Amino acid sequence: MSKKLDLTGKKFGKLTVIRELPERKKGRIMWRCKCDCGNENIDVVGIYLTTGQTQSCGCMKKELEIKNLREEYENKRVDGVVKPLFKDKEPRKDSSTGFRGVSKYRTRKSKELRYRAWITVKGKQYYKSGFKTAEEAYYNGRLKLEELHLPKKEDHTDE
Ligand SMILES: [Zn+2]
User: Fold this and answer.
1) pLDDT value at position 69?
2) Distance 13 CA to ligand 1 centre (A)
3) Which of 33, 72, 79, 103 could bond 15 through an S-S bridge, CB–CB 3.0 to 4.6 Å?
């Protein structure tokens, strides 16, 4: 005969054990718990508590799912560059020049307006300067930089 564990008052994850229940589940002791989130009357088999299988009323699972979703989204980024950039080569109208990765500058001597394409890959910045229009800087600069410096796609189904 193994010694009966008294889990009353013990905490497992977010669950606090309130009391032992009179009923058994397949001969196992059930415990009435309450969850940190406010849910009460959660009945858990003792072994699930002590082994850490059940650590909340289910709300923690939801939190985990949200966390996983976020990680999945993060994994879709390659070195800080969102992957859809690989697919559609449409300029993004979300920067000051109207093109993603294109910025304005003025030449040192003549103060002429020029455009510079840039990209950050693995914390390193790459530039291509001297474009007269933002569009040119995007198509001949930014896209070239993407080709050169972004990790290559595995599949080339679109080619
Ligand atoms: Zn909960």
Assistant:
1) 79
2) 10
3) 33
